[in-house]
Amino acid sequence: MVTGMPISAEVLANVKADRIRRVSDLANRRSREKSGRFLIEGPQSVREVVAWHPDVVRDLYVQAGDASDGSHDGFANQTIAAIAQAALDSDIYVHRATREVMTRISSDAQGIAAVGDLTAMRDAMRFDGVSSHGASANDSPVRDASSHDTSVEDAAERDAHDGGADDGSVRGISGPFVAAFWQVRDPGNAGTVIRAADAAGCDAVVFVDDCVDVFNPKVIRSTAGSLFHLPVVSMTTGGFFDRARADGVRVIAADVYGTDDRKPELLPDVLAERSGTRRITDDPHGDAILFGNEARGLPRDVLKRCDRIVSIPLYGKAESLNLGTSAAVMLMSLAMARR
Prior knowledge:
By secondary structure, this protein is of the alpha/beta class. The protein folds into 2 domains: about 110 residues, CATH 3.30.1330.30; about 190 residues, Alpha/beta knot, CATH 3.40.1280. Helix content is about 35%, strand content about 20%. It has 13 helices and 12 strands. A 7-stranded parallel beta sheet has the order 8-7-6-11-9-12-10, sandwiched between helices. The protein has a 5-stranded mixed beta sheet with strand order 1-4-3-5-2. β6, α8 and β7 form a beta-alpha-beta unit. The radius of gyration is 22 Å and the shape is elongated. About 10% of the residues have low confidence.
């Protein structure tokens, strides 16, 4: 094993050690904010943060193996060994620990967990000058020219170079493609919709108003690593609509009922409208698809601020779709229409 960072020969075995207690406590939001650290559990999420944001990781804890386990380079299995090697190559300090210690860190760790720096991750997740720590309704859309934030213009340029048609023209729609979620409270749902947005090629995810903490370990685990692939930010309701207007981005509400004076358009009709030979230069606007709370959807006052309201038709006997399924269907359908 060739390493860039040393790995201690010691195997952490004391489940009551202060270090282990502090890592375990990161499941609690107050502990995360106080320490400036967050916990990443499981092989998928840890592999992705090591691959995409190794500078965020402060420590990696892995389950040690022994001869009876058929261990690989002193680790419990080949998957853990490969991630540990990648971490060592990125100068991340790796700590081997017993199965009992890993379980004390997290019962969902599956033999591997990482501790990340909150500030560094929030900086890495910024989109158009907004971070995962939130923005107020009065925030200016003007960006710091010296920053490395993903901007509306960057997103448009990226779309314009995303591929071409046989005749040499570029297909798709200019501008950013953003998935937004209003008052999402369930950690599993939050992680699922981040994963759906990542799969659809969204430029960013925006959590609007009072939502679950994206650094909740269950949120991170439910993203299956997608949290580390795209910007994820938080905004107030007013700040979200103000930013969309300032940047010329249409807000499309995903809603079943609409309002008294505006019924929703059906998704197939919207897709048909966007299909065919329309070129990227025909429409410079981007889209922000806004989904509502799991139980209550979007309130009337929020719907009235949206440019369009779109619903997914149901052809069978099901009464409705849950948030994760709705987000996957809507975002993937619109993503395919953009390409």
